[in-house]
Specification:
4 helices, alpha+beta, 3-stranded antiparallel sheet, 3-stranded mixed sheet, Nucleotide Exchange Factor Grpe, Chain A, domain 2
Length: 188
């Protein structure tokens, strides 16, 4: 078969210009009104299913967007938690050192200013102290290191703070180590 014959055969498979072609089988009869109504009802049900699925997807996406924003905010709030946790022993050493020396020494007052400035910078990042002196013992915020009987302090109240606790943006970073009253000493 040569090139001309192939071209002629290709033309015969397509309709001539101006020729009307109807989709489907030419022998079919037009649909009656009941069949049309059934098709329309079916399409209406499909549309309502599609609409409900679209609304569910929209709600899921909105929830996803909110969860991502909340996770991003939490990450920004607590990204420095590891660094803050590593700085807590430094704050403890500063605090112990400043309590054990004479405050009148100008060098000590310089260290006190540096300590206060460090606490201020950490506080601006969301670090707050947990100082429960005199409060009721709370195991979610405090770590009991000792129980001591006391006539002045009622049972389960904090007598002394052995080590300051810290919170970072409302979450506990380190519990306060406390001495708790066990109440009045019972005489036997």
């Amino acid at each position: 078969m040569n090139y001309m014959e192939e071209e002629r055969q290709d033309r015969t498979s397509y309709p001539e210009e101006g020729q009307n072609i109807k989709p489907g089988n030419a022998d079919t009869e037009p649909m009656d009104s009941n069949a049309t109504a059934t098709v329309e009802n079916s399409m209406g049900e499909d549309m309502s299913d599609i609409k409900s699925k679209m609304l569910l997807l929209q709600a899921d996406f909105d929830n996803f967007r909110k969860r991502v924003a909340r996770d991003r905010d939490d990450y920004q709030k607590f990204a420095c938690a590891v660094l803050m946790g590593e700085l807590l022993p430094v704050l403890d050493i500063f605090e112990i050192g400043l309590k054990s020396v004479d405050q009148a020494n100008p060098m000590v007052s310089g260290f006190a200013m540096a300590f206060n400035q460090l606490k201020s910078v950490l506080g601006s990042s969301g670090l707050t102290e947990v100082l429960p002196d005199g409060e009721h013992f709370d195991p979610t915020l405090h770590e009991a290191v000792a129980h001591i009987p006391s006539d002045e302090v009622p049972a389960d109240k904090v007598i002394e703070v052995a080590r300051t606790g810290y919170m970072l943006n409302g979450k506990l970073l380190r519990p306060a180590a406390v001495v708790v009253s066990s109440g009045k000493l019972e005489q036997k």
